[in-house]
What does this fold into?
Amino acid sequence: MAGRWCTLEKLDAAKHADGLFDAYMLAPDGRAWTYLFVERPETREAYRAYAEANAASADPYHYAIIENVTGKPIGTSSLMRIDPVMGQIEVGNITYSPLVQKTPAGTEAQYLQMKRAFDELGYRRYEWKCDSLNAPSRAAALRYGFTFEGIFRQAIIYKGRNRDTAWFSITDKEWHLVRGAFERWLDPANFDAEGRQKQSLTAIRAALS
It folds into this structure.
């Protein structure tokens, strides 16, 4: 899945693990992994084993996010809970290094997966779920155009603690508006010479609606 700022490739541990480990270790600690099901692997060998297991999985289906300018892997994301009969699919396991956090590539990576799900695979419902305490994830879902659907209480136990899960979704009926907002936001004309956005994704979507 190729975009202007990034390309998503099927995760390949032999190809991507070393670069991903280097990117993740740019963070001073593993706090970005707090709401993932695992802690950040702290050695190259441990991360390679983690990447190999993810690469072998069909569901979740993991992608490496490649920065187009450098050709380096800068994060991962996955499509999961894949149900073609019901036309439902979820995005998850989003693991961004400091190289992709708060960049156009981070937003574009999410757009490319949505586009794959709706336009290429024909899904009718695209889901986002997170720990209800994960305020940045909840804010990101709303920014991307998801609708908040509610809290599933005591849905999961992970890392020895309870998780109330916040549910969000985009349906195929909403996708036309969401896609149009992404495409206008990602247009190079929406960024100044320093790479700062001129209009926010939320503002563009509101104007289109």
Remarks:
- The longest strand covers residues 147-158.
- The chain has one domain: 6-208.
